[in-house]
Amino acid sequence: MYVCSCFGITETQVKEHAEAGACTPRQIASACKAGTDCGSCVRRIQAILGRGASPRREPALQGGLAGANDLAGRGEPVLSGLPEAA
Ligand code: FES
């Protein structure tokens, strides 16, 4: 099934690029141009990437940034939840 009709890119092709290391819609666009014309497929590409088609980045720092991720998940400013730098 086509994900990007502007360039004829299929879901399988997007998954292949993801498995080859493309983790973001921008990286998919670099690999095959999908999403660079009308842009209507970008959300579909994001959804495919979000389904674990590519290795998800682990939280870089356990603890500190995990709290920031919680704030971001609640739509609150992330930096306000971080401790002041000493
Ligand atoms: S459908 Fe992908 S750029 Fe238009």
Automatic annotation (TrEMBL):
Entry annotated with the keyword Transport: yes
Keywords for the protein's UniProt record, in alphabetical order: 2Fe-2S, Electron transport, Iron, Iron-sulfur, Metal-binding, Transport
Disordered as annotated region, ranges: 53-86
Pfam (any one): Fer2_BFD
Single GO term (MF): metal ion binding
Residue ranges occupied by any BFD-like [2Fe-2S]-binding domain in the UniProt entry: 2-50
Source organism superkingdom: Bacteria
Family assignment from sequence similarity: Belongs to the Bfd family.
Name of the protein this chain belongs to: Bacterioferritin-associated ferredoxin
Organism: Streptomyces fradiae ATCC 10745 = DSM 40063
Lineage, opening ranks: Bacteria, Bacillati, Actinomycetota, Actinomycetes, Kitasatosporales
